[in-house]
Amino acid sequence: MQRAISLYDRTTRFLSGSLIESGALLLTRLSLAGVFWRSGRTKVVEGSWLQIEETQYYLFEEFGLPVSPQIMVPMATYAEFFLPVLVALGLATRLSALALLGMTMVIQFLVFPEAWWATHSLWAAMALVLVSRGAGLFSLDALIARVRG
Questions:
Q1: Helical H segments across 50-120, by residue range
Q2: How far apart are CA 52 and CA 50, in angstroms?
Q3: Which of 10, 39, 79, 133 is the most exposed, having the fewest neighbouring CB atoms within 10 Å of its CB?
Q4: Which of the pair, 149 or 96, is modelled with greater confidence?
Q5: Residue 81 pLDDT greater than 90, yes or no
Q6: What values do phi and psi take at 21, rounded to 5?
Q7: CA–CA distance, 143 with 136 (Å, rounded to integer)
Q8: pTM of the prediction?
């Protein structure tokens, strides 16, 4: 019985260690970044990096957002391009994930309120994990922290 408890304790210690956590945080970062990156790519002309499709302005008008589409479309497009890159690299992860959480809440409350349980709750959960835990060992944030001492 003592051996079984000892094996359980060692296994639990390993599974709750920084290596497994960092792997989970990496997967979380890539998953959240992938969602917003793919969304951002739908807003630009195919084959371009940041040339915004004109149809996006009409689409945003239909949502009836409280801010002009002339402001919201570029802001959303650039955010969906740059923030996922930062999150995927693990650079300024907590702040970038917080911004993606804010975008998720705007989408939830102003654009697609019916999508909470199916989609937005998962995005929010991933963002909150990154905000609270950071990027983990496999990130530029960790590399910068090591260099800084």
A1: 55-63, 69-89, 93-106
A2: 6
A3: 10
A4: 96
A5: yes
A6: -60, -45
A7: 10
A8: 0.92
User: Domain segments of the chain: what residues?
Assistant: 18-148
The answer to whether the CB of 53 falls within 8 A of the CB of 45 is yes
Q: How far is CA 110 from CA 19, 65, 106, 107, 139, in A?
A: 39, 7, 6, 6, 33
CB distance 96 to 87 below 8 Å: yes
Q: What is the mean pLDDT of residues 79-86?
A: 98
Q: Tell me how crowded residue 87 is: count the other CB atoms within 10 A of its CB.
A: 31
| 57 and 73 Cβ atoms separated by less than 8 Å | yes
- What is the average pLDDT across 57-75? 93
Q: How far apart are CA 34 and CA 83, in angstroms?
A: 11
